[in-house]
Design a protein that fits this description.
43% of the residues lie in helices and 18% in strands. By secondary structure, the protein is an alpha/beta fold. It folds into two domains: 7-143, 3-Layer(aba) Sandwich (Rossmann fold), CATH 3.40.50; 158-292, HUPs (Rossmann fold), CATH 3.40.50.620. α9 (245-252) packs across α10 (274-284).
Length: 295
């Protein structure tokens, strides 16, 4: 983790983005860095949605003041709940995607809500979460609103999807750093997806998935070994799951404190295309999902 860069959280005044702020504030406190709450105020889009045929420079100053006050109130709540976190409020007059991507160039971490309509008419932060996760220069955590209940238990693991590619190193580093700071277990998961015809042939032959399970165990052990050595105090569980990576990994990540995936990468086993399924996991996993870019 970069201890010299702030955590940045996209905020739009919605309940969903407030969950993202809560997650980001806790993470900033653990890292010992500041937190920037950022709102992208897209004047042309707002005015078009409101049916106002005026130029951006003619926009209502009251709306800008409302935006600034709303973000500042959220920052003040962070400072109250997390006195050690220096929280600042930022309003940029541009669309959310370019604003957050520009912030990501100098941030340690971007945090956004999965979806949500904000307190300003027709502003939807969640509509940009996928684009930010896929294109940001730094890791992005997408926070889904909690379902029925209080969220994952305090002992829930950090689940990390491993495909054995060079991209896995950054993904594992992020997962172990988060688990270490939060005193959680790392559950490293590799998904083996066989061609349906091959799967049937192997079942008919009696071979079943055993050869692939052995190869997966070897892949996981080799990928995780450097991080076990670097973080000897972190408990690690290695697991092979069978099936298409999206449902298989999503199932393994059920109830996790965090799922960590990469934006791209190709493993040594057939169809272990972790990057190609990161978008699917963002839509199928109900807990927080961290997407780590491949350097």
């Amino acid at each position: 983790m970069d201890a010299h860069r702030d955590v940045v959280c996209g905020y739009d005044g919605s309940t969903e983005s407030q969950h993202a702020v809560d997650w980001a504030a806790h993470e900033a406190e653990l890292r010992g860095v500041g937190l920037r709450l950022v709102l992208g105020l897209n004047w042309p889009q707002l005015l078009l949605a409101a049916g106002q045929a005026v130029q951006p420079q003619q926009a209502d100053d009251e709306t800008l003041r409302l935006a600034r006050r709303t973000v500042e109130e959220a920052a003040e709540q962070v400072r109250t709940r997390h006195p050690r976190v220096a929280a600042t409020a930022v309003v940029e007059q541009d669309a959310a995607i370019p604003v957050l991507l520009a912030e990501g160039e100098r941030a340690a971490l971007l945090v956004v809500g999965a979806r949500g309509r904000g307190g300003f008419r027709r502003m939807v932060l969640g509509s940009v979460s996928t684009a930010v996760a896929e294109h940001a220069a730094c890791p992005v955590v997408v926070v889904h609103p909690p379902g029925h209940g209080a969220g994952p238990p305090a002992t829930a693991p950090v689940v990390v999807a491993v495909d054995g590619s060079p991209a896995s190193a950054a993904v594992l580093a992020f997962a172990f750093e988060v688990a270490s700071s939060r005193k959680l277990t790392v559950r490293a998961v590799h998904a083996v997806h066989l061609d349906p015809l091959m799967e049937q042939l192997e079942l008919m032959s009696g071979a079943g998935p055993r050869p692939h399970a052995a190869a997966s165990s070897k892949l996981l052990a080799e990928a995780v070994a450097p991080w076990r050595a670097r973080f000897p105090h972190v408990e690690v569980i290695e697991e092979t799951v069978f099936g298409h990576p999206v449902p298989a990994i999503a199932s393994a990540a059920g109830g996790a404190a965090l799922l960590v995936v990469g934006t791209q990468g190709h493993g040594d086993l057939r169809a272990a295309l972790l990057g190609s399924v990161s978008r699917g996991l963002l839509h199928h996993v109900s807990g927080p999902v961290a997407v780590v870019p491949h350097a």
